[in-house]
Amino acid sequence: MAKKSRNYRTWTTHEDAKLVEAMLNMVNAGGFKADNGFKSGYLQHLGQALKDSLPNAGILAKPHIESRIRTVKKEWQVVYDMIANNNTSGFGYDSVNRCGIVESPKVWDSYVKVHKGAENWRNESLPHYDDL
C-alpha cells in the first residue's frame, strides 16, 4: 500500500503579510464576505491576488492558502480568547510588540493548565492580530 504524502509548506512572514493584505482587500472590496466567513470562490480570488503579489512563490489556493487560513484562524482565536475573553483576567495586549502580555507567571501557568493551545503564545508575537 502506497503511503500518502502530505504537502507541507512553510510560510514566510512576508507571505503571511501578503495573505492578510489580500484578505483585507477582498473584504473591503465586497462580494466575498458572508456572515460567518467567506463566500465560495474566495480561495481562487486570494490565489490570484497572491500570484500577482508573489509571482514566484508557488502558493496554491488549495492546499496552501486554505490550510494557512485555518492555521491563522486557530492562532488568532487562542490569542483573542486570552486577551478579550471576559473570563480571563491578568492578560493584556502589547500593541507595540503585537503580543499578549500577562501580569504574573502564576496567572500564565494556571491558564495554560486549562488551555493547552496557549502554551506557545507566551511572549510570542501575532503580527496581524489587529488586522484579523
From TrEMBL:
Domain Myb/SANT-like stretches: 10-111
Record-linked Pfam families: Myb_DNA-bind_3
Alphabetized InterPro entries for the sequence: Myb/SANT-like_dom
Protein name: Myb/SANT-like domain-containing protein
Species of provenance: Lactuca saligna
